[in-house]
């Protein structure tokens, strides 16, 4: 069909455009701009995969910070050289076999995703025994348990000191490559029969069961895929900021992801992407409220914490007054755009 | 002996309350059997036992000779027992077509990764499912609404969509929980005709709950009457209409007809 | 463990447990009516602690004026919280309500951070609570003994309200069946406000005692006590006041005694409650005092 070919063509054009923009920034962009673009891509990966669980399955999972933490630590521990590890672990030496292993970055990312997936699988049984608020608090609990473990397991994570001096392997190509992959793969899944089954569970779990859908199996599938991409994103994050410690992966991280997907629209992948981009940009833009401001005649002192006040207010305002967020549950893709254009042409 | 479907001495208790007491039922392939009784008699509880939403305290459920007591709901559905709900339970935010396609999901051959990477094998299967779903929608006169939100349909069409969705399971046994509740006489007549038509086209056994006596008497070949969880009568519509116990149960309680 | 140390730890456990119990009651009451985990409930501890500090340090009020004022202020904050964050969402999907609760919690914490600052403030422990007494040959802070007593008094008052007054009757009705209660012509919103008021007052009492026990007050001091109190409520059977109390005591005693028995576990103390939560949900989701679920389709 012509329409399908046109869509493939337009997708190709979009990819080339993204490539050119990234190329331009990697060549001529400032460090600051590149950092924001990297953050943006990592947030997109995280938000899209978080939205797969929260938006499409209709459950409130509050522990993605655990997946990101596990991914970050796994990949960091795998890429550090044995010598670097020895320098980092000053209080307690690192356990075997981590003290001798060193693998290439790409393998460490894969391992990050798989370890997070394995963890998700292990906690899935207690998590999906319950629903609603209970599920929320249980997943929040697992997030906290992982944080406590990161602090306590000195000989694996180096405790509160964290890991320093990771090689800065992450660049625009990695972050955006993973972001595009997660977007494509997850939106394909959502538009497939599996996605329909997930939405059916969200709309009415009882009816979905009566139509032959096994809720546990499908929620687990979404949960594991989400964990995989969150883990990979954690690995990217670790090698972007090159220093990680347990304080990076608190509930605050989950809260930020929640803002992104709620503002973008729970249950819309494009919404999650938009939410993540706005957050990455807005988070930087709002830094001015925490810095002293010189208006020439008077200097307004910066207010630390003001950003979080604004973010929490934003979340509440969206939930209270614009519950559908920017995109609601609809998507912005070529099909939608072309249909709109057709309608414009034939009034 | 391989029975088509059998309930054997089902008893259900909620706390101290006996909801269903030693209920037995035998269905022959292709039959239409009705279950009636005053409100709170335990009819929906029986449906929930058959479809697996409840496990009976005692008693057994047999499907084509196999004991399926206590099996999970989705497994029972996959074996070919589909149901509708008393208070319509569609997937309101999904399209009419998608609602029907959910019923095909359990027999999907492609794995999730084939769907994730959009492989041709998956795409072929998807378009096949789509056209199959359309045939069921046509069957119930809903094909022109396939792209509508299910929640935006008027009541009567929502009931029909629920039947289409259950039919897409390709069930051997179809459970209808008050299929004509809230319909006017001509609509119920249409529904009765529809059920007969469907039975002509598909190998379908129908077991239904209904308060509309006229509908039940016209449609069902056999009727069972429940009162306070006990079976008080069983027989052809003509026999039930004459039964003194039934008259007492209905006239003694709130009149439903 | 010698018997004196055991006794000492037992008293500490009862004291901590009674704090959890006070906070857990608020969770359980709100959950009973709205089926909502009021995430911001824990932050009311912080609100109470700060107001009490301000009363004493800034307005130089004596503690017996400042504390009740702080309790009252926190109670009103609780009502305001419901009005602003939950009431507009009564008919919204549950997930929205929960997200609003999380937002409200972060808002309270960060407002405190902006207004007061992140540096922990020392809580001025009034003289009557600062004494140390001899009990069975143990030297014990009076606060440790006062805490369970205050809890008991407040609990009895609450039980009186819930079981002997008209408002209490309406509250119990609303937690049984929200819609029917509304149809009976009872002003459900007023009942919810009263519920929030009572829950917040208890949380405020808990917050002030918590701040006297651990006299470092910061904007995030309520997070962990809040989460643990919620777990105590689940443990006891959510929606059940006596269950919340029992759950609170069990959790408090458990935390103290396990760490006392195996000191190496101290660093995992914050994870203990969550593990307990998972076990309860796996094996007895209705908690100790909860009624079994009825599966209705």
CATH superfamily membership of the largest domain in chain B: P-loop containing nucleotide triphosphate hydrolases
Query: The CATH topology of chain C is what?
Result: ABC transporter involved in vitamin B12 uptake, BtuC
Counted up, domains of chain C total 1
Rg of chain B, alpha carbons: 19 Å
Please give the CATH architecture of chain C. Answer: Orthogonal Bundle
In DSSP terms, counting alpha (H) and pi (I) runs of 4 or more, how many helices of chain B?
10
Notes on the structure:
The complex is a heterotrimer of chains A (347), B (257) and C (297). With 347 residues, chain A is mainly alpha-helical. Chain A has a single domain, classed as ABC transporter involved in vitamin B12 uptake, BtuC (Orthogonal Bundle). In chain A, 71% of the residues lie in helices and 1% in strands. Chain A has helices at residues 2-28, 31-56, 64-79, 82-88, 105-128, 132-152, 154-157, 172-190, 193-203, 205-210, 215-241, 251-264, 269-285, 306-321, 334-345; strands spanning 293-294, 299-300. Chain A has a two-stranded antiparallel ribbon. Chain A is globular, with a radius of gyration of 21 Å. Chain B has 2 domains: 1-80 and 171-257, P-loop containing nucleotide triphosphate hydrolases (Rossmann fold), CATH 3.40.50; 91-170, no CATH class. Chain C contains 11 helices and 4 strands, in the order ααααβββααααβααα. A two-stranded antiparallel sheet of chain C has the order 1-4. A two-stranded antiparallel sheet of chain C has the order 2-3. Classes of the chains: A mainly alpha (347), B alpha/beta (257), C mainly alpha (297). Chains in contact: A-B, A-C, B-C.
């Amino acid at each position: 069909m012509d329409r399908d070919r046109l869509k493939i063509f337009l997708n190709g054009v979009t990819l080339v455009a993204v490539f050119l923009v990234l190329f331009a920034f990697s060549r001529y962009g400032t460090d600051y701009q590149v950092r924001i673009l990297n953050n943006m891509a990592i947030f997109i990966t995280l938000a899209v995969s978080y939205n797969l669980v929260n938006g499409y399955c209709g459950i409130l999972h509050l522990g993605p910070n655990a997946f990101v933490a596990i991914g970050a630590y796994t990949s960091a521990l795998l890429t550090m050289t044995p010598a670097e590890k020895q320098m980092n672990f000053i209080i307690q030496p690192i356990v075997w076999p981590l003290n001798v292993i060193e693998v290439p970055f790409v393998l460490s990312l894969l391992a990050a995703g798989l370890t997070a997936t394995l963890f998700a699988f292990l906690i899935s049984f207690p998590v999906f025994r319950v629903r609603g608020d209970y599920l929320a608090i249980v997943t929040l609990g697992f997030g906290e348990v992982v944080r406590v473990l990161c602090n306590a397991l000195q000989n694996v994570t180096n405790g509160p000191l964290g890991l320093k001096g990771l090689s800065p392997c992450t660049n625009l190509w990695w972050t955006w490559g993973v972001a595009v992959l997660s977007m494509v793969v997850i939106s394909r899944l959502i538009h497939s029969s599996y996605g329909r089954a997930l939405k059916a569970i969200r709309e009415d779990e009882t009816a979905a069961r009566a139509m032959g859908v096994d809720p546990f199996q499908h929620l687990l599938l979404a949960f594991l895929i989400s964990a995989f991409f969150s883990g990979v994103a954690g690995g990217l994050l670790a090698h972007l900021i090159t220093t990680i410690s347990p304080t990076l992966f608190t509930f605050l991280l989950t809260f930020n992801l929640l803002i992104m997907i709620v503002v973008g629209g729970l249950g819309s992948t494009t919404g999650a992407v938009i939410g993540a981009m706005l957050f990455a940009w807005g988070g930087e833009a709002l830094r001015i409220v925490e810095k002293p401001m010189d208006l020439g005649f008077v200097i307004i002192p910066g207010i630390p914490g003001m950003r979080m006040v604004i973010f929490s207010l934003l979340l509440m305002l969206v939930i209270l007054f614009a519950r559908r967020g920017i995109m609601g549950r609809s998507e912005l893709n070529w099909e939608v755009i072309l249909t709109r254009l057709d309608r414009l042409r034939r009034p | 002996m391989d029975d088509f479907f059998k309930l054997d001495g089902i008893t259900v208790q909620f706390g101290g309350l006996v909801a269903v007491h030693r209920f037995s039922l035998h269905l022959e392939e292709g039959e239409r059997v009705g279950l009636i009784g005053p409100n709170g008699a335990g009819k929906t509880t029986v449906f929930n036992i058959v479809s697996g939403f409840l496990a009976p305290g005692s008693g057994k459920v047999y499907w084509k000779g196999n004991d399926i007591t206590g099996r999970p709901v989705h497994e029972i559905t996959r074996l070919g027992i589909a149901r509708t709900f008393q208070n319509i339970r569609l997937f309101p935010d999904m399209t009419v077509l998608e609602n029907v396609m959910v019923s095909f999901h359990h027999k999907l051959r492609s794995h999730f990764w084939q769907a994730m990477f959009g492989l041709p094998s998956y795409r072929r299967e998807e378009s096949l499912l789509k056209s199959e779903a359309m045939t069921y929608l046509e069957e119930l006169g809903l094909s022109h609404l396939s792209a509508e939100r299910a929640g935006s349909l008027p009541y009567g069409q929502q009931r029909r969509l629920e039947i289409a969705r259950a039919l897409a399971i390709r069930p051997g046994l179809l459970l209808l929980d008050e299929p004509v509740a809230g319909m006017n006489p001509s609509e119920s007549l249409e529904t009765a005709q529809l059920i007969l038509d469907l039975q002509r086209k598909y190998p379908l056994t129908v077991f239904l709950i209904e308060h509309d006596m006229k509908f039940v008497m016209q449609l069902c070949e056999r009727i069972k009457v429940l009162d306070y969880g006990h079976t008080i009568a069983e027989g052809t519509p003509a026999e039930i209409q004459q039964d003194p116990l039934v008259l007492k149960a209905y006239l003694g309680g709130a009149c439903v007809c | 463990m010698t018997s004196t140390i055991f006794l000492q730890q037992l008293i500490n456990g009862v004291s901590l447990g009674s704090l959890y119990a006070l906070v857990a009651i608020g969770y359980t009451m709100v959950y009973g009516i709205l089926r909502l985990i009021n995430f911001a409930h824990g932050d009311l501890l912080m609100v109470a602690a700060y107001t009490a500090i301000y009363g004493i340090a800034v307005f130089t009020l004596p503690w017996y004026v400042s504390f009740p004022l702080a309790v009252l202020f926190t109670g009103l904050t609780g009502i305001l919280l419901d009005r602003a964050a939950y009431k507009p969402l009564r008919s919204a999907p549950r997930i929205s309500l929960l997200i609003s609760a999380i937002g409200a919690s972060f808002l309270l914490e960060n407002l405190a951070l902006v207004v007061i600052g992140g540096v922990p403030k020392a809580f001025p422990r009034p003289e009557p609570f600062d004494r140390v007494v001899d009990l069975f040959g143990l030297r014990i802070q009076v606060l440790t003994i006062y805490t369970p007593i205050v809890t008991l008094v407040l609990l009895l008052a609450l039980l009186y309200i819930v079981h002997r007054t008209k408002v209490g009757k309406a509250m119990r009705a609303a937690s049984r069946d929200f819609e029917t209660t509304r149809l009976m012509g009872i002003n459900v919103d007023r009942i919810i406000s009263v519920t929030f008021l009572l829950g917040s007052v208890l949380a405020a009492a808990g917050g002030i005692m918590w701040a006297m026990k651990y006299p470092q007050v910061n904007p995030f001091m309520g997070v962990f006590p809040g989460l643990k109190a919620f777990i105590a409520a689940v443990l006891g059977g959510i929606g059940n006041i006596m269950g919340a109390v029992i759950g609170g005591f069990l959790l408090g005693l458990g935390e103290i005694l396990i760490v006392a028995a195996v000191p190496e576990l101290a660093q995992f103390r914050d994870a203990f409650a969550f593990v307990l939560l998972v076990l309860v949900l796996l094996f007895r989701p209705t908690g100790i005092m909860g009624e079994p679920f009825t599966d209705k389709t």
